[in-house]
């Protein structure tokens, strides 16, 4: 029988959102998950599944029952011929990579961190960059879902196809994702080349950059024209690294954190910090190569607040954000604004539904855990993103409600109908999801 714990406090990775679930479960089997759902039905409780707890919002919070999937983390099957792997949804990608390495396989794209679960990254629509590559959920070829009544649905293009179209970006509101089958590719190495540029250059030559590099992204340094371009491409070169403790940690972390903390008393320093650190760390060309998952992911050292919307009009939106900052010198923005590109797809609530997109991620760090005022920046950014028809990243805090999503997503009613059918009592809702659906 499954045992729950009282008194557990859940906090997300950035320690920006947390909750005290009434009961906390760590099931080890499908039967135990079913037991928790049966208890929840009997006692009329809400249920929230949590993966790696990395979402920078309250999407994974609940005061009802929390199911942590960390003990359902096995690789179940590797089909070398089809290059597909079936995993339990609680597996951390960081544990999946070495298993795939052993079989000469890899995921074709990843987000910036791997301490996240397969169930969590697909559920929130996690993405990286590469205009020929979709969000991570597009790598899913099948999944199994336990619905509120304890039934198990096998979903793929050929079985429960409508649920499959919804459940790849599931927001945690359709049931418990038990297993996921991912389409892999042969293992590959990437070469990463980072070099300086300007906002004008990168926007004038966007198509050319997108063609030149399979995984192209760029970082804009607000309060300046500075841009750092990052190309990542297949290579046969042996692993090499330009990492340096002095520049990456002493300067890029300890000194930066201290200066950002100082700027909480003197916000006018932020523009200078952005320009100074660009000059210190981003003005020379750098090259690294390694296995793909070691290049895609990097160490995120700072706790932070973020927003990340998918839009179509990169240049117009970015220039409007820049103009807003110039017109309002009291609004300050930490570096970088990270701009990534993603192929469109057909997943009902994917921010890239039916359109190739550009994600524009803004950030405000929390030096030594201190919250930095960000409301004006956040509101101005959201206004611009809405004006350009943007759709917010599901994992990252936003102020949108059902009315907004109805406008943003042509398939929103279809998703709602599927959700209401699978979870008629709203067992899997929490306050974040109630804003989305009510
Ligand atoms: C440092 C850092 C870097 C990041 N980099 C990127 C990036 O490069 N690109 C990007 O797009 N995002 C990025 N993110 C966001 C991150 O990828 C998402 O928040 C992702 O969902 C985290 O996975 P998780 O396992 O922690 O999910 P959680 O935060 O635990 O959960 C996310 C959602 O999935 C649901 N869920 C999880 N598992 C299941 C399951 N088995 N069944 C049903 N529902 C489930 C939860 O209920 C919740 O609704 C980053 C976040 C951090 C903190």
UniProtKB/TrEMBL annotation:
GO biological process: L-ascorbic acid biosynthetic process
Residues covered by the FAD-binding PCMH-type domain: 17-187
GO CC terms: endoplasmic reticulum membrane
Main location: membrane
GO terms assigned for molecular function: D-arabinono-1,4-lactone oxidase activity; FAD binding; L-gulonolactone oxidase activity
Keywords per UniProt: Ascorbate biosynthesis, Endoplasmic reticulum, FAD, Flavoprotein, Membrane, Microsome, Oxidoreductase, Transmembrane, Transmembrane helix
Biological pathway: Cofactor biosynthesis; L-ascorbate biosynthesis via UDP-alpha-D-glucuronate pathway; L-ascorbate from UDP-alpha-D-glucuronate: step 4/4
Membrane topology: Single-pass membrane protein
Cofactors (names): FAD
InterPro entries: ALO_C, FAD-bd_PCMH, FAD-bd_PCMH-like_sf, FAD-bd_PCMH_sub1, FAD-bd_PCMH_sub2, FAD_lactone_oxidase-like, Oxid_FAD_bind_N, Oxy_OxRdtase_FAD_BS
The enzyme's E.C. designation: 1.1.3.8
Record function comment: Oxidizes L-gulono-1,4-lactone to hydrogen peroxide and L-xylo-hexulonolactone which spontaneously isomerizes to L-ascorbate.
Family statement drawn from the similarity comment of this UniProt entry: Belongs to the oxygen-dependent FAD-linked oxidoreductase family.
Protein name: L-gulonolactone oxidase
